[in-house]
């Protein structure tokens, strides 16, 4: 910003921008710091460069959720997904301290090194849903109570289908079942709409099978009210990576 003394910009940098938050060029611009000035502040030690267009205060401890929020600005549809989303909403099973955060988005994307070096994480761009109504995609994301404002997280009904779709690949079957057992009072309307759009026959059938066993929803009524994509009337059979044979009936 022309005409503003350097010490004034540094004061704004240190008093107006929060700690624990990665700073992009928009954040720096909000206090009058250009990309060229940011580069100079890196050289003089006022800022640390994390990656392309991303900075932080030197030796700052960054917040996981604030870092995810920055990635949300760059990646369409990026959100906390699967069992990570369920854990944020109280549905968990023996969650480890080093548990990887699971992020999903709409496009191919490689998590930046500055992020993965701080937080164990995995990103997926699986097209799990064939949206008939695009608004359902945004309606099935929310910020749970007590979580950083603006963080996009799958609602439980979406998160459980994301988790089930990865059973046998990235997700252990037994762990998935234990987490599923913690599911309480799913909303039938959003669940039915999501199941109808689900592109994974395995996820749909596994949900129906476990829902019938746990009675978490009335499966027969769900099948009556929604045209669920269960595939053929034959059993769905697949051998998982650990050798387990998974056999699923079409209606649970």
How does this structure look, described?
This protein is of the alpha+beta class and 252 residues long. It folds into two domains: 51 residues, no CATH class; 185 residues, no CATH class. It is built from twelve helices and ten strands. The strands form four sheets. It has a three-stranded antiparallel beta sheet. It has a three-stranded mixed beta sheet with strand order 4-5-6. A two-stranded antiparallel ribbon has the order 7-8. α5 packs antiparallel against α8. The radius of gyration is 22 Å and the shape is elongated. The N and C termini lie far apart (64 Å).
Topology:
Elements: H1 6-16, E1 23-24, H2 25-29, H3 35-43, E2 48-51, E3 54-56, H4 64-74, E4 79-80, H5 82-88, E5 101-104, H6 113-116, E6 121-124, H7 135-139, E7 141-142, E8 153-154, H8 156-165, H9 173-180, H10 188-197, H11 201-214, H12 219-225, E9 236-239, E10 245-248
Helix pairs in contact: 5-8, 8-11
């Amino acid at each position: 910003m022309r005409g503003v003394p350097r010490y004034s910009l540094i004061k704004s940098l240190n008093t107006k921008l929060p700690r624990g938050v990665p700073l992009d060029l928009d954040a720096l611009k909000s206090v009058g710091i250009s990309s060229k000035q940011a580069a100079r502040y890196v050289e003089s030690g006022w800022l640390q460069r994390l990656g392309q267009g991303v900075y932080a205060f030197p030796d700052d401890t960054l917040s996981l959720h604030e870092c995810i929020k920055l990635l949300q600005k760059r990646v369409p549809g990026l959100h906390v997904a699967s069992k990570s989303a369920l854990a944020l909403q109280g549905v968990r099973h023996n969650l480890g301290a080093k548990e990887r955060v699971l992020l999903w988005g709409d496009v191919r994307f490689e998590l930046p090194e500055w992020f993965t070096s701080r937080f164990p994480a995995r990103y997926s761009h699986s097209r799990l849903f064939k949206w008939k109504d695009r608004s359902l995609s945004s309606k099935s994301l929310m910020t749970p109570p007590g979580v950083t404002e603006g963080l996009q997280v799958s609602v439980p009904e979406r998160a459980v289908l994301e988790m089930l779709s990865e059973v046998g690949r990235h997700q252990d079957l037994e762990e998935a079942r234990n987490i599923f057992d913690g599911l309480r009072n799913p909303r039938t309307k959003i669940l039915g709409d999501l199941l109808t759009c689900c592109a994974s026959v395995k996820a749909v059938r596994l949900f129906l099978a476990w829902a019938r066993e746990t009675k978490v929803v009335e499966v027969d009524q769900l099948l009556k009210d929604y045209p669920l994509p269960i595939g053929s009337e034959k059993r769905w059979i697949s051998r998982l990576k650990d050798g387990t044979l998974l056999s699923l009936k079409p209606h649970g």
